[in-house]
Design a protein that fits this description.
Length: about 325
């Protein structure tokens, strides 16, 4: 939703761009048939910038504390709980970056940095405590049939006794949704080890964005009638994927977590491309567009400009997300 520096578009007229995009929309499905793979099972690498730099070393280290946990999974939990906000406090009195309630912290908080204190507000204690608590739960349910990570997450949500009693993830809608949410979000924090599957909804999203070429930019614009059908950057990408049946968050830095992250050389039309003044922190993302191929995106760049084609290879290029329906559904309502 926020604005980056505008870049000169290389297309002389919108008409030539329309033909260009129409070819790409068709090409999405041709390419889709030739790209295989997904986020590799067991990957413990973190996607570039997905975890704020201040916490990346902690998450990488403590995310490998036990076999049921990995850094991307731990990152997904922290993002789901607080959006990496060490000052977060919930209405239920959960506190800090890992959202421990006082009773749980009293029994499971650890002195992660060895300074003689256990401080729920200090990520140097809270992140190790979250990992330690996860692994403690994994030990409780290690003899239960099924996936050890799923059982650990279920124990985190419903209690180890329930997992043991039901012989796996309990039949509680909340618990099953929690397990699916965290394991899905994990994919947006893991560095892919193989090529990422193409998005089935990409062509629809591109077609929508193409139809808005030439529309004046509006800060906070979501394309409503009262706004004259105008958009800002993340309003455009949100509306484009909503047309394709996927509900994205409103702001760019949350949209970054709506799926896995293809490398620059693996970009496909429909991928969301992101821009930030800080290459180490996805929470600092300030701009987003929809990739259309050939090094270009459709975006709503800034006040005074119109929705147009812009090059993506700028000093502020941060990375990309291949939006998935499950990835978007897993995102927290607010972080």
């Amino acid at each position: 939703m926020t604005v980056r520096k505008a870049w000169i578009v290389a297309f002389a007229v919108v008409g030539s761009g329309v033909s260009f995009v129409l070819l790409l929309v068709v090409g999405v499905y041709v390419v889709a048939g030739n790209v295989a793979g997904g986020v590799g099972a067991g990957s413990v690498g973190l996607a570039r910038g997905a975890v704020p730099a201040a916490y990346q070393t902690l998450v990488q280290r403590w995310g490998n504390l036990c076999s049921a946990l990995n850094p991307a999974l731990l990152a997904a939990q922290l993002y789901q709980e607080s959006g990496f906000n060490p000052k977060a406090r919930s209405p239920a009195a959960a506190e800090g970056i890992a959202q421990f309630i006082p009773g749980t912290w009293a029994t499971h908080g650890v002195d992660g940095n060895g300074d003689g204190k256990r401080d729920v507000w200090d990520p140097n204690d809270a992140i190790p405590s979250a990992a330690s608590y996860d692994c403690e739960l994994a030990k409780y349910v290690k003899t239960v049939p099924g996936n050890p990570t799923d059982n650990m997450l279920a124990a985190y949500n419903a209690g180890a006794d329930a997992v043991i009693r039901y012989g796996g993830v309990p039949p509680y809608a909340e618990t099953r949704n929690y397990v699916k949410t965290i394991t899905t979000l994990e994919k947006s924090f893991a560095a892919p080890v193989t090529r990422v599957d193409p998005s089935k909804q990409a062509a629809v999203a591109i077609s929508f964005a193409q139809s808005k070429l030439g529309t004046p930019y509006l800060w906070g614009g979501e394309g409503t009638a009262a706004q004259g059908g105008r958009f800002d950057c993340s309003g455009l990408t949100q509306a484009a994927y909503e047309t394709a049946g996927i509900n994205l968050p409103r702001v760019a830095n949350d949209q970054y977590n709506a799926g896995p992250h293809p490398k620059r050389e693996e970009l496909l039309p429909g991928d969301l491309v992101f821009f930030s003044p800080d290459p180490t922190n996805s929470r600092a993302i300030r701009h987003v567009g929809i990739y259309v191929g050939g090094g270009y995106m459709i975006d709503a760049p800034r006040t005074g400009a119109v929705i147009r084609f812009d090059p993506i290879d700028t000093p502020l290029y941060f990375g990309a997300t291949r939006v998935t329906e499950d990835g978007a559904k897993a995102l927290p309502v607010s972080v």
